[in-house]
Amino acid sequence: METKLARIAEIARLKPEERFTSLYHLLNEEMLVLCHDELDGNKATGIDHVTKREYEENLEVNIRNLVSRLKTRSYRPQPVRRTYIPKGDGTDVRPLGIPAYEDKIVQLGVTKILQSIYESDFLDFSYGFRPRRSCHMALRSISQVIEKGSICYVVDADIRGFFNNMGHEWLMKFVDLRLGDPNMQKLIRRFLRAGVIEEGIWEPTYVGAPQGAVLSPLLANVYLHYALDLWFEKVVKKKCDGQAEMVRYADDFVCCFETKHDAERFYAALLLRLEKFGLDIAENKSKILMFGRFAEATMQRLGQGKPDTFDFLGFTHYCGKSRYGYFRVKRKTSRKKFNAKVKAFGQWIRQNRHEDTDQIMKTVAQKLTGHYRYYGVTDNSPSLDAFRYQVTKLMYKWLNRRSQRKSFTYKQFNAFLAKHPLPSPKIYVNIYG
């Protein structure tokens, strides 16, 4: 199977105009068993409440039955189960769609096939949900673009509810440019229109793709590749008087320009471009700001104080200098993300303070390490220290409320931490490495 996908990828790379008309047969037993093996068994279940462990108890029969339904075109995706997760600073929530387990298997198979086609099409400045690419690579790219280029202005734009507003007809038109297999197209349409179930009530889906579904990130990349990336690369950059660059991670993107005129023209054109494809900008979260190696001097000359900052991928980016006095793009954990993480930890420790102490400390260590691995980037040590401090405060507060008597004094709590040490903050990602 991997050989077949590699062959498709090679054809897609060598023939950018090629339409693939026969791919549906690749959703066979070999492919679907491979997808089953790759799926995480600890993820939340859909409306079928079937877990990976339960499904694999009779795996051979289940997969054979699934392939039979795919071949006879009788397979119908089940509606996704809608739930909500905290968004931003934790005061708002975003909808999350969780497919049934069998649908996850098929979606992963479709994702593998489409990925082998589109990976060679996607542009270099796109980093989200792609093999061998990550958030940290996107952060490195921003640093290189601004520090080594002639960038003076940044357009910080936020697409409002992107996953909820992708137009199905536009998406299928984009898919049709490379995928000519009618059976695959029909299967993708069925996933898009399977609907959602919330509190036992089914709702149809005429637009959007469920955020949380296996296939949705790839479809989002396809949508934005044609609606945004190619337009920026083929049209916007050619009409700019100075340098223009973009870095995109899924629906989050930052555009950098050498001149203010180019930045303003792009922002005005962006509103019309996104409107054409059923999208719009959250204007309260979008702005044009002076940013770059000349920004600080220019703003001081104009008496406007320090350059403004922008948020991207959970980090606040600001103008700084290296130890040798050279301009540097620096970053710290954004206030919204920091507050949301502290709030989430507070809720967790409050709900789990009755658990065994060793298990609590083990989980706290895992949570801290996970936080450090993402936010532990160059220049962000103070934010890591602050997060560990807040975690320690919350532990002292809630571990002291496991009974009507206090469990610790400050001295006893410090002795407890000496016996159960928390991981120290660590920089895991060198932006300049």
TrEMBL record:
UniProt entry tagged with the keyword Zinc-finger: no
Limits of the Reverse transcriptase domain: 66-317
Enzyme class of the recorded protein, top EC level: transferase
Keywords: Nucleotidyltransferase, RNA-directed DNA polymerase, Transferase
GO molecular function: RNA-directed DNA polymerase activity
EC number: 2.7.7.49
PANTHER family documented for this protein: NUCLEAR INTRON MATURASE 1, MITOCHONDRIAL-RELATED (PTHR34047), PROTEIN YKFC (PTHR34047:SF8)
Name of protein: Group II intron reverse transcriptase/maturase
